[in-house]
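Entry 12.
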Amino acid sequence: MPERKVTHATFSIERTYDAPPAKVFAAFASIEAKSKWFAGPGEWQEGRRSMDFRVGGKEHLSAGKKGSLPHVFDAIYQDIVPNERIVYTYDMHIGENRISVSLATIEFKKAAKGTVCSSPSKAPSSTTSTTPRAARRARSSCWISWARC
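Predicted 3D structure (tokens):
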């Protein structure tokens, strides 16, 4: 059995959008809107995607390079306050290897011009045969997408 290690980390992303909080929140709240920006790099192929945006609802996305192990994101929505906050737990896998389990909070705050969207996250990651560097790169790919939406 491969050795499992745990690394605890926190990270935060903050971005200001030139749109009101309701519009920015809507980009996270429907599968149609979220699929426009929550994706892997351009050369990746999307597998299955589903989203049930409600407290207790689940979200799933699998994608990856053709011929490679899929990267899988599975989330459960823990708290939703429309136009203010989304809290969810999620885990990520590469193939059968779980690379992280995280708690994320996304806050939407009205700014002088637009909306400040911030996301402090706690992310202990456990790795097996996937290298720590590959695990960090895989976790960050989804957040990089979020940062450019």
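Annotation: Confidence is low (pLDDT under 50) at residues 127-131, 138-149. The chain has one domain: 5-148.
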